[in-house]
Amino acid sequence: MASRAVGAAVAAVAVLLLLAPGAEPIGLWLPPPTGGGGRLGGAAAPGRFHVSFTFDNAIPMFMSRTHNVHETFGPHKKAIGTSADHRQFNQRYYEFLDYYRAPKGPIFLYICGESSCNGIPNSYLAVMAKKFGAAVVSPEHRYYGKSSPFESLTTENLRFLSSKQALFDLAVFRQYYQETLNAKYNRSGADSSWFVFGGSYAGALSAWFRLKFPHLTCGSLASSGVVLSVYNYTDFDKQIGESAGPECKAALQETTKLVDGQLQSGRNAVKQLFGASTLANDGDFLFLLADAAAIAFQYGNPDALCSPIVEAKKNGTDLVETFARYVKDYYIGTFGASVASYDQEYLKNTTPPPAESAYRLWWYQVCSEVAYFQVAPKNDSVRSAKIDTRYHLDLCRNVFGEGVYPDVFMTNLYYGGTRIAGSKIVFANGSQDPWRHASKQKSSKELPSYLIECSNCGHCSDLSGCPQAPSHIEGDSSNCSSPEAVNKVRKQIVDHIDLWLSECQEQGHDNEPLLGSRWSIATY
Question: Mean pLDDT score of the chain, rounded to an integer?
């Protein structure tokens, strides 16, 4: 969440020389993958650095679950109904100016989503920034990382955490940063051409920002943008089965039945086999296993799972032990998943370290607004049938108390779901991504949507390349099963950005042409 006081002075808190590659914050409540392509200004770009700032968020922390929204606001107060709250808090953001054609280049706003924002990823975003001579700025989502209004994350204190609040934060930050640049380059009243980017939940925020604040951005890229809130998201599991293929799907289903049988017979030793003996709740354990399987397809590493488990089934090797090795070695080891994050007792902790707070925070957003309950379909499911609606509702009640419930009808009514009525928003999805069914996949002139089709094209493939975790420098597409498919969609995305930025320029942004009537793009 990115909120900054309009007209406030920049308070430089820390200058971070990023010497190690970072994890890209993509994933819808799954832990961010570790390693990979690093950050702009980090190890992937030797000798550069980016600056971490904070500014005072002057947007009041109003009640987010009230529906009579009064959407006019000034720099120091925001009213909703009869309730106003004028407290402020610091929020962190990053900027990267190496490619910026000052002072008239465009501004790329990259939205950090449901995790700590530890820098700007050196993904295909960097390639586009260089092409367009853009500054890149990335604000942290409120409550996440170092941008929390409260030290204690009680349910009462979390009531100001919502997508609506995040959008207002972005609007105020946009104005704040524009004024900061104007002061830096002595350009009174200038308005740059802005373009908004985001992936996953942040991809939805990117689309919703253009929808709600069309005057503040020339357009948006919603990479794997999950704009449809879903109560029972059975399509997630169905896509896992489809992406796995017949052999791998059958092996995974058999493994699930074997684990269910061992739990039903009271043999909890199976949890120890997976390194998850601390998960007393069987549902929590089964959700861990479901996520572990899903991650192979979501992030473009299907062979990491399917090769060993299909081989085990053919050879008569113990399937449960084979899957347990994958979970421990790949999901927990390489990917960096936390077993504790699946424990409802752990999620009830209201004072987690900042690096671990994202689990509780995202579950609150799930339980209060967007749902995305990844339940097992009635027939032919890959995950255990015990991961049902009741499991999710019980988790929400257990972790956050009574009264926290995701009103997906109101969320979709407010934003439009896949019937979003915006313009100049480009959607991109990977064919193997289980989240694509919550994105807009029907294309139109004003809302173009592209599906990148290849066997390891998953979540945010357009930005991250293949596989999607760990990340790759500049979103390298060479390891995609069809680099041509990725590059074709990237060219289409760049063409839209080029057109929409030029239209902004024609409407008076940047005051005078910088590179003629169109932005100069030589190659893709």
Answer: 85
SS3 135: strand
Choose the catalytic residue: 148, 192, 200, 449: 200
Helices (H), 197-298: 201-212, 234-264, 269-273, 282-298
Active-site annotation holder among 141, 437, 459, 472: 459
- Specify the CATH number for 11-228+463-506; select among 2.10.260, 1.10.10, 1.20.120, 3.40.50: 3.40.50
- Mapping DSSP to helix (H, G, I), strand (E, B) and coil, where does residue 136 land? strand
* 302 cis-preceded (ω within 30 degrees of 0): no
Closest by Cα among 195, 214, 227 to 423: 214
Determine the residue type at 279. L
The rounded percent of the chain whose pLDDT value lies above 90 is 77
Domains of the chain, by residue range, sit at: 11-228+463-506, 231-405
Which residues, in sequence order, are CB contacts of 111 under 8 Å at separation 6+? 2, 138, 139, 141, 170, 196, 197, 198, 202, 205, 206, 209
- pLDDT tens digits, residue range 464-515? 999 998 888 999 999 999 999 999 999 999 999 999 999 999 987 775 433 3
pTM value? 0.87
For residue 196, give every residue at least 6 positions away whose Cβ sits within 8 Å of its Cβ, in sequence order, or none.
108, 109, 111, 170, 206, 209, 210, 217, 219, 220, 221
From 284, 291, 433, 510, the catalytic residue: 433
Q: Is 200 a catalytic residue?
A: yes
What tens digit of pLDDT does each residue of 254-264 get?
Answer: 999 999 999 99
Q: What distances in angstroms separate CA 213 from CA 82, 206, 233, 417, one per listed residue?
A: 23, 10, 29, 17
What length is written for the chain? 524
- The pLDDT confidence band at residue 18, using thresholds 50, 70 and 90, is very low
Least confident of 15-29, 227-241, 248-262, 268-282: 15-29
